[in-house]
Amino acid sequence: MKKNVLITGSTGYVGRRLKQILINQHDLNIRLMVRDKNRLDASILAKERQGELQIVEADTFEPKSLEVALQNIDVAFYLIHSMGSKDGDFKSKDRISAENFRDASIAAGVKRVIYLGGLGAKESASSHLLSRIETGEILSAHKDKIQTIWFRAGVVIGSGSASFEIVRHLIHKLPIMITPKWVNTITQPIAIDDVLAYLHSAIYADIKGDLIVDIGSAPMSFGQMMQQTAKVMGLERILIPVPLLTPKLSSYWLILFTPVPLKMAAALIEGLKSETILLNDNAQRYFSNIKPMPFNEAVKRAIDEMEHREVISRWCDSSEDKSCELKELDSPAGVGESAGAVLRDIRKFSIGKISKDRLFASICSLGGENGWFAFNFLWEIRGVIDKLSGGVGLNRGKRSTTNLRVGDAVDFWKVADIKDGKRLLLAAQMKLPGKAWLEFDIQSEFGVMVQIAHFHPRGLLGRVYWYSMLPVHNIIFKMLGQKIVEHATTKGGPLL
Ligand SMILES: NC(=O)c1ccc[n+]([C@@H]2O[C@H](COP(=O)([O-])OP(=O)(O)OC[C@H]3O[C@@H](n4cnc5c(N)ncnc54)[C@H](OP(=O)(O)O)[C@@H]3O)[C@@H](O)[C@H]2O)c1
Q1: Does the C-beta of 370 come closer than 6 Å to ligand 1?
Q2: For ligand 1, is residue 65 a contact (CB within 6 Å)?
């Protein structure tokens, strides 16, 4: 009999990767639970159409929707958290979310819930970790009614994971680093592939009753993690620990040089102050077939995935995730919101005989390491201004240089809508006195690509901003469209 498995959080960092593995298992029927179907890859939606998997839209704050999602499910993965919630009260949200999910799972007769939380002792836990612990406690509060296997992982090393992106950016940009004391804190990092191996095995594991499983590779300090990452990247780096660097200062340091926003940097730094080591040997006892790879190997794999453009998920994939927040723009109604903008820069570029697919590929290759095709220094200045004013800046880059999906970050933009070979709508996430979108629409029937910068100003300041930027926009937007068309015509060009 095939097992019916539900993966929640399948638009998040871990869930996106887990589903990629589980959908290829012939002994499992997979159902994905998402809040918005449009945020999944087109290939996954195609699999649903072909009946290879099910997708259910549900929200843990809407218990009725959970009834549908959990119907006939044997094993449910709980990979949800609200760390990035806008109102900041992630603790109570996480609590309610876990309670609703547990109660709905019990009512639906789910046999096993598999949860991935954070590693570390309760006594020294950061507020983020405490909330992860509380979630595990809530999920496993009714041991007589439902079984919970609760994995606890510390720093996860994988392409696009927040911790790895931070280490990589710091190493890349700073030959000499003044570091706070916490670089000496001991932790047990783990490769994302090993995390996925544990989660996968837990579906079948012959375990009676609840179990907490701490997972991680050999202990090392954060300083050692940085040095070893530098080595894998072929770089020499000098770390100078100073006692005076407070967590607050360290957070500012991180947001300046890495892609993570302030709230996330602060939460991560708070977590780095105390040791995160394995507190039980259940991984060894119950999952002895999995041998976590050494840290260096995990870093090599992460870099390899990035170089081969195989990054499946990134830390900013979840819509809940603070700087990636795009709630109103993510919704189908929000996509149309750009139509309500009152100021526009509209340009048409003749596309001659270029195929729409080639032109679309050129549009989608914008940003990240490819840059913005012309006047990159102006985009970079805008990125620095954004960072200094508390925005996301350009550091976020892109998940893939060529392939985009709704919700993907593209520097300080976010993909709000994508129609293959036709339209790309980017919503601005930089600090602005208003809301902005950048749209590319291929109108093959008229032989043109229409490029529109939409702006919805906030009050007088918004209008002053728009009109004062007109001379710069005039140069940038004109060249942008021209270069997109030019790149599409460059046969075998570097970007396509
Ligand atoms: N990533 C790591 O490095 C790491 C390390 C150690 C442990 N963990 C643990 O692994 C688990 C998953 O983490 P992650 O990094 O994959 O998280 P993530 O990328 O932030 O994704 C969170 C997921 O939760 C979904 N979600 C949030 N609120 C929801 C709600 N009310 N109803 C339904 N879905 C909701 C999001 O959906 P939307 O797309 O709709 O927002 C998203 O798919 C967490 O428990 C975390 O503590 C992660």
Answers
A1: no
A2: no
Structure token digits, residue 394: 């350009």
CA of 9 to the centre of ligand 1 (A): 5
Indicate whether 317 belongs to any domain: no
Choose one of 289, 307, 325: the last residue of a domain. Answer: 307
The upper half-sphere exposure of residue 165, i.e. CA atoms within 13 Å in the direction of its Cβ, equals 26
The parent domain of residue 347 ranges over: 338-489
> Cβ–Cβ contacts within 10 Å for residue 476, how many?
18
Query: CB within 8 A of 146, min separation 6: which ones?
Result: 102, 105, 106, 110, 111, 112, 113
Q: How far is the CA of 12 from the centre of ligand 1 (A)?
A: 5
Residues 126 and 272 both lie in one domain: yes
Mean pLDDT per block of 10 residues along the chain (496 residues) reads 95 94 96 90 90 96 97 98 70 95 98 96 89 96 97 94 87 84 90 98 96 97 93 90 78 78 78 89 97 97 81 69 36 49 86 91 91 88 82 79 84 87 90 90 90 87 90 92 90 49
pLDDT at 325: 33
Asked if residue 320 belongs to a domain, the reply is: no
CA-319 nearest atom, ligand 1: 41
Report the domain count for the chain. 2
Does the pTM surpass 0.70? The reply is yes
Ligand 1 close to Cβ of residue 252 (< 6 A): no
Would residue 323 count as lying in a domain?
Answer: no
Whichever domain contains 350, its CATH number is: 3.30.530.20
Residue nearest to atom 32 of ligand 1 (CA): 59
3-class secondary-structure state, position 386? helix
